[in-house]
Fold:
Amino acid sequence: MKTKAIIFSLVSVFLALTYFLLMPKSYYFFSEKFDAWNSQLIRSVLHSGRFLLDPCFKSNCYKSLTSKTPLDVVIPLVEKDLITAEKTVESIRAMVLHPIQNIYIVAPESEKIRSFCQQHGCIFILENEAVENYEELKKQGGWILQQFIKLNADKYTQSDNILVVDGDTVFLRPQIFIDDKKNTYTFHIHSDYTDIRKKFTRDLFKTTQYFKLDFITHHMVFKRKWLKELKEKISELSMCPWQQALLNQISLNKMGFSEYDIYAHYVFSKYRDFTRLRSSANTFIFRDKFQFLELYRSIYSADYKSISSHHFTNFTSY
Structure:
């Protein structure tokens, strides 16, 4: 009986914390540290229960996971990411259990990247043709530019659903992002909560409410209709084109933003019934250790769904 009571108490506490985390509350309702801790707690619980909650971790997941919903894939790239991009594309084709229509590589002019696209059956898109106001966006830096490229994915893709993947992320296990029967979209929760990104989202949407979850998981499926609505909403609130609204906010707050957090905030605010939460189950390896990816894959694939190797993380610099 004591064991059951302890389990019941823990579940009750978890459900209470989940409620406070998922329901949008005023910015001043809890402190940043509490919000970050709570977000990480939810992610940890989802990850701990992955074998029960997440079909990606079932022993017969390849058989149980399937979706007839087609996806286009968008991967922004620069030449320094070619070291990881091949494994990224291979893992998408092997692990994403949706029909893949096209894989778009968005990059600056580069013979190496064009050759990569030809070799791997991808469509090359010049980044200056993927966004408006390219020169102004480029001045903000590559990291900011790539986020605009992702948010503009509905302009140069064809599918109703677009999987955006960072070029340094490799899937380790089967992935399904849309449940055909329930018509729900999976949103992954990470554990790198930063209030700076949340403040940008709050200020952009002119609200004191926000969702205290970390959506920065290096990949996300954008529904074309919702992505278009998001940009229209930003333009409506700011009374200017959505790109300029984001640039104005960057200039005003002197801070970066997250395209994933902005999109997730909009979807959770308007289409919460069409979403489901899962742990990101993402880990990372140092970029200068990427040559040993297959070794890390064998080590991590039992517990993680993806692995990232960011260009700014080198073992020798730590």
User: Anything to note?
Assistant: The domain at 53-317 is CATH 3.90.550.10 (Spore Coat Polysaccharide Biosynthesis Protein SpsA; Chain A). DSSP finds 14 helices and 13 strands in the chain.
